[in-house]
Design brief:
Pfam families: TetR_N. This is TetR family transcriptional regulator. InterPro entries: DNA-bd_HTH_TetR-type_CS, Homeodomain-like_sf, HTH-type_TetR-like_transc_reg, HTH_TetR, Tet_transcr_reg_TetR-rel_C_sf. One of its GO terms (molecular function) is DNA-binding transcription factor activity. The protein has nine helices and no strands. The model is unreliable at about 90-100 (pLDDT under 50). Helix 4 (about 55-75) crosses helix 5, helix 6 (about 100-115) packs across helix 7 and helix 7 (about 115-145) packs across helix 8. By secondary structure, the protein is an all-alpha fold.
Length: about 200
């Protein structure tokens, strides 16, 4: 029996994650049945669960994948850019993933954190990645002289994370996004160091 290359296994795993992302976004965790996951990924349950132990493991891998991609954006461009990416329309060149799909995953994580103690414990280790990336980026900005120096970096980190959660809630409620880009401009400006004449 021929061996499958690591590239093929990685591509298959990516195919499963991408299909699962849209399925969880559309139907939520409970509604993403195995049959729907098969349809969304174009693969059989055997192929899906060859790569992931169960649906819970698949969802955690997906949420972790999104968190890693967000942390990469934060390291390069900051947490406000993650928020701008969230506002980006699918296919316009922005976004961590198509906007509605990424939002769906983020909302499902938030819901499960509120209602599932076991999930909360398992997710706690993974969620620190985004906080650490945000804190490191802000510290770098401070050392570069670009970040206001009258507020502790941990307070600014918490502030930006709170804005992110507020943005996610706003979008989840279907409220208008008309001026949110300008709101993010204000948020970004609020953490910058202002130099005198």
């Amino acid at each position: 029996m021929p061996r499958v290359s690591q590239d093929h296994l990685d591509a298959r795993r990516r195919q499963i994650l991408d299909g699962a992302r849209s399925c969880f976004a559309r139907f939520g965790y409970e509604g993403a049945t195995v049959r729907r996951l098969e349809e969304a990924t174009g693969l059989s349950r055997g192929a899906i669960f060859h790569h992931f132990k169960d649906k819970e493991s698949l969802f955690l891998a997906l949420a972790e994948d999104d968190a890693t991609r967000m942390a990469d954006v934060v390291a390069e461009q900051g947490l406000v850019q993650v928020m701008r990416d969230l506002l980006a329309e699918p296919g316009d060149g922005g976004g961590l993933a198509p906007g509605a799909d990424w939002l769906g995953t983020r909302l499902e994580v938030s819901r499960r954190l509120r209602t599932d103690c076991d999930f909360r414990e398992r997710w706690a280790q993974r969620s620190e990645q985004l906080t650490a990336a945000t804190r490191a980026r802000l510290q770098w900005q401070r050392e570069s002289g670009n970040l206001r120096d009258d507020v502790d970096v941990d307070v600014l980190t918490a502030y930006l994370e709170l804005v992110l959660e507020g943005l996610v809630s706003h979008l989840a409620m279907g409220l208008p996004a008309k001026h949110l880009g300008e709101v993010l401009d204000v948020v970004e400006e609020s953490v910058r160091r202002h130099r005198g004449c």
